[in-house]
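Researcher: Quick sanity check before group meeting.
Model: Go ahead. Protein one:
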Amino acid sequence: MKHIFLLIILSNATLFAVAQKETFDLASYAVPKGWKKEQKENVVVYTYVDQKDKSWCQLGVYRNIASKGSVDQDFTDAWQELIAGPYKTTGPTQADTALDVDGWKIKAGAGAFAYNNGHAMALLSAFTGYNRTVDVLAVTNSEKYIDAIEKFTTSIELKKPTTANLTTANGNVQPTKTIADNFAFNTTNFDDGWTSRVQENWVEVTKGGLKVLIHYPNKKADAYYSVLKEGDFNAWDLLVAPRYRNMKNFEWKTIQSWQSITFMEGDATENATGKLVHIVLFKKHVSDGSGKYIEFVSNTKGDYEKEFGVYHNTEFDWDKNANMQYRNKFSVAANDLLGKWSSTDYASISYYYVSSGNLAGSTATSLSDEYNFLPGNNYESQHAQASGVVGTQQFSNQKYKGKSMVTNWNITLTNRFKGASETYDSYFEAVKGGRALIIKDNLNTIKYLVRQ
């Protein structure tokens, strides 16, 4: 095995004829025909099982993460996370470093471990370059797959990462995806030191070494489950798990009540940075359905508890956690408003006879508001209402035209009721692919408007 393994490291990167070329993240490679493929967020795995002799082999290519600074350290960390931890084995029995190949240093190693009352071996290659590292892992219980592993490993070609994947000078990793909207404000600096930034799938709120992700509404993650635990794990699997690996110390500590508290925490390696972090997934299930999944990321559990407090098994006193969702708040610019924005609301009450239980009738109220912001600081709005006993409801409709004046956190509209001007507190809430406009009048009536 030692002799063959050295061939894997030192041989040239040539393809073998009986393979199909595939690509994942930064890597392209040749895959043996007939192997089963399973692709996840951070790794693609190819598996072959021979039922005749019960032998098997798995080949895995991992998504690139930030380098720790050297191929030796990257290899050591990957070995601990991918092999030593899961398979309860020690360090590799053989490891070597090759010369640079197109800007990538390569370190590979192999080791044996016990598996299902038998023997197995793992072969790991770490590719480090351009401040990133890519891991390639092969695990098998038979030496008959060594040739396939060798051809697979030596076929790997890595492209140079784009600027979006490189580590910045201060050690932070630039986001792999940028915001492509046309809104004027994508950042909010709060007076207490927190800073919010719009991202593709969440709002990222940071202060010091703390990071909080306010996840946008997600139809699959927010789906109703009659068993709360099933809903929690569904949300964790969709929102959190794909961006971490090597999870440890995981605990489900949810509190079930009339406004349940979702609380799940653990320690894991963050794929984007390669850092070991502490993660908390939190949600307060408020009765009006406005609660958001919030992900707290800190260097240690102690750092999280210093800022947000120690976990307590009661549904009360979670305001500091829950109120982080209101950091999804961004200023409004006049050009951001151009177009139609609308909202609707509906409420009803049904009445029943005490003696018979039969329906005695229903009352209902429905409201709709539409604002059309036009060039030249002009606006038009229409407000419709229907209320009363169902079947005999009374309807009203009001229309206004005038001028709009916008500051960062206020919108003033002229020529409203009886010709007076009206000023609204206003801000944007980021959502997947756009913004919602929130306005509050002087009677504290809040309208949640979406662009038509």
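Researcher: Fine. The other one?
Model: Protein two, sequence then structure:
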Amino acid sequence: MAELYDLVIIGGGPGGYNCAIRAGQLGLKVACVEKGETLGGTCLNVGCIPSKALLHASEVYEGATHSYGALGIKTTGVELDLAQMMAGKAKTVEDLTKGIAFLFKKNKVDHLIGQGRIAGQGKVEVLLSGDKKSVLDTKNIVIATGSEVTPLPGVEIDEERIVSSTGALSLKAVPKSMVVIGAGVIGLELGSVWRRLGAKVSVVEFLPRIMPGSDAEIAKQAQRIFKKQGFEFHLSTKVTGIEKLKSKLKLSMEPAKGGDVQTLDADVVLVCIGRRPFTQGLGLEEMGVKADPRGFIETEHWKTSAPGIWAIGDCTHGPMLAHKAEDEGVACAEAIAGKAAHVNYGVIPGVVYTSPEIAWVGRSEEELREAGIEYRKGSFPFTANSRARANHQTQGFVKVLADAKTDEILGVHMLGPNVSEMIGEAALAMEFRAASEDIARTCHAHPTLSEALRQAAMGVEGWTMQM
């Protein structure tokens, strides 16, 4: 008689593996089916983690070649060893994927390598290596298949000269010139890596601004900083084609509203216009699982329209972020186990790991105005923060938005050093529905960068104290 699982998860990315581990901790019998050879999904293998490894390494390299002199550190003979940098990235990924595999064993999660699909009510078929198949019987099925790169019509990605984010993480040499199509998070981060290592980077964006969806004031100042760093921006511009020549790529573009065609030459073109849900070939239609026209699975508290089938992460609606998927994975496992489960979708932070970093949580000024919500604003520049000045990292500012009547924090937006670590305090405050005064009257260590958040919160009521 076939073994009966409490749940089988299709997909071993941040949503899937956290769901599996939490289910195991709760005593459920669980299996996780992942088509890749290693766990971790896009995020760990070809996304968040390797990109952050290269961002850190490239920032250190740029500091050694351009910035350390201002700190009284003379450097000579600094050379780039790209092969070693890539090896360090790979080692980081390898160690973390092994860590997930260890947690699976610790929590008695069965791990199957193969392509999974729903083969009927309570049945998951797994295509294993050598065309072998296995069928798992289960009470619940969780779809955690994530997302894939959105292609640009008429452009073929070869992952050598025309690359997606995957290829951009493994270039064998620093290109002299790179064109990035898309001024979102991925484009700005990976563009930053290769600019620091020596490439001339041009960014082409269809919309009239960078980082669509982020706070406009933050995006405007960030663009000015990136331009000073050497980025070239072509906004309100659409790409119409890429011609592959022997020695270069010739990219054709025109104004988004139509107009004369212009060209850009490049050694490498990075296409990062977004991601789309990966939901094909899973047997969803046959089971009556509803999805929208773009392929996102419709859910209510992670339940799909089909009994016993759940969905989490990038293949569902909401921000395509690893930490959103992680929270959903944990909550979904707890719901299946009969426990209370909750994800506060209004308090999911976003981060861009450029230099300076960008981070936010909650609503932007544009969203508050559109919703007709009266708010007050406090802001504080890093030029007035003692630690930032001591560290020679004074670019950017922190902004706190609070309800004009109740003082509840509605949004926090940051541009500056280490704000990816600082945004957690703002998220925690919002989770407890804190007022801006709560942060303003909370003692922060001096001198620290986090004082900028406190000073911005003070600014909501007009009592900011400089330095």
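Researcher: One line on it for the slide.
Model: The CA atoms of residues 14 and 323 lie 7 Å apart.
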